[in-house]
Amino acid sequence: MSRIVIIGGVAGGASAAARARRMSESAEIIMLERGEFVSFANCGLPYHISGEIPSRTDLLLQTPESFKRRFNVDVRVMEEVIHIDRQEKSLRIKRQADQSEYELTYDKLLLSPGAAPVVPPVPGFTLPGVFQLRNIPDMDRILAGVNGVSHATVIGGGFIGLEMAEAFRHRGIETALVEMAPQVMTPVDPEMAEPLHQALRDNGVDLRLNTAVNAIEQTEGGLLLNLSTGDVLKTGLVISAIGVKPETRLAVDAGLQLGALGGIAVNERMQTSDPDIYAVGDAVEETCFITGEPSLIPLAGPANRQGRIAADNMLGDEKTYRHTQGTAVCRVFDQTIASTGLNEKRLKQLGREYRKIYVHPNNHAGYFPGATPVSMKLLFDAEGHILGAQAVGKDGVDKRIDVIATAQRGNLTVFDLEHLELTYAPPYGSAKDVVNLAGFVAANWLRGDTDICYPEDIDTAGPNQFVVDVRTVGERERLGFVEGSVSVPVDEIRSRVAELPKDKEILIVCQVGLRGHVAHRILTQMGYKARNLTGGYKTWKLMH
Known about the structure:
Blueprint: E1 3-7, H1 10-23, E2 28-33, E3 39-40, H2 45-50, E4 60-62, H3 64-71, E5 74-77, E6 79-85, E7 90-95, E8 101-105, E9 108-111, E10 115-117, E11 130-131, H4 136-146, E12 151-155, H5 159-170, E13 174-178, H6 190-202, E14 205-208, E15 213-219, E16 222-227, E17 232-235, E18 237-240, E19 244-246, H7 249-253, E20 264-265, E21 277-279, E22 284-287, E23 294-295, H8 300-314, E24 328-332, E25 335-341, H9 344-350, E26 355-359, E27 374-380, E28 386-393, H10 397-409, H11 414-417, H12 434-447, E29 452-453, H13 455-459, E30 465-469, H14 473-479, E31 486-487, E32 505-509, H15 514-525, E33 530-533, H16 536-542
Parallel strand pairs: 1-2, 1-9, 2-5, 9-21, 11-18, 12-13, 12-18, 13-14, 20-22, 29-33, 30-31, 30-32, 32-33
Antiparallel strand pairs: 3-4, 6-7, 7-8, 10-19, 15-16, 16-17, 22-23, 24-25, 25-28, 26-27, 27-28
């Protein structure tokens, strides 16, 4: 009988323990957790703080007792592994209750220590009243500290930062969000984050972009944040959510190899540099599905899948983890933002050739009540391979990005997106789904059936270019227009074509790109040189 010891629970460790038992009734499985809780919904913590998940117990997925009953796993909480002896294949463990220590041997060892919040070397980040959110005790401390607080500040505009800003506003607390970057949610590109900025402001969040915290001071009346802008922000409670870093102390002490980015290096079998030690979850360095390069992607889905694969392999199987796309979603009040694959910022850093298009259709049939726009950005190469996608809107965003992520995983191209047969009924979608439409636009461009321009082309239109707005006059007046553009509605373009200069390139603007494509086809077949603004005036507005 082999002994599998798992260090750390939650997504990676707990899924590995359950999978190992399902695959082997004879293995001895021991799970060690230095905290009190071995399996909890850490992604749900902000929503209990907000009150949307009313019961704290709903976050507790498994207890040591339930693990024992169902899976016959020996779960030992409040016991911390302080040393790994690889030669002896033994662990030294400290019991938190009495600080006593004991030794435990293993046949196979799994590391699932997770990632720790980054605490910057800035004065005041360790003061009382400054919190991080990683686990149940953190959540409990925040809930205790928020009582009587009228103003809270969140530092960092990533997933946790955005969810905590929303949680505090749900509780009626005045909230500031301070972000050093020029945008929140850096996994997406700046223009796709703009609706989130608007949603935050519309819901009363004091959003401070391009702003760093230089110091935090304790005063009788609360905390003072000295900001890089020169402002001083007075607040009652601070959430530090500026990022996480892999917990690698045990791995380093044991002499295990780290990767280039500082995570635990593993192969496709989730095996470390020691063949009897595996590692999963936020602590490991993964491989990017698109580029094959090392990456750090702390997401629950990959951690769960890695745990299952590691469990199988510790029992003698030969399963492989098929890399990480980074597919993620976040709610920000009434907006949902989701993405998969690479963003444009990363593609530029890599020096990789790419193309991009935007579409802004409704989430379902426009004639059915409640239709709202979904803005999608699709990134692909000259052969049509999907490099990444981002979408933002009120409804239907997650399922569209899920479809793109699935297509990317299956090595489908934008030409295949045209042919996907997706569910349609008026309350749920359109006969031309958002994903289909993105495929149509991308494929038309690659085939040469259309030519595309971007807002920056419109902004810098030179003397040899002519910008024409093909929307109705009423839309132009009601919704705004590009300065310097000339109004020629698409339904009048054939009769008024003589008004357009044939010796200049025509840059076409409509509302979302559809009528612009019609105008482009008309003009090019009449001998004009033309390009259509992808996503139309709506894309232009995202960047202005």
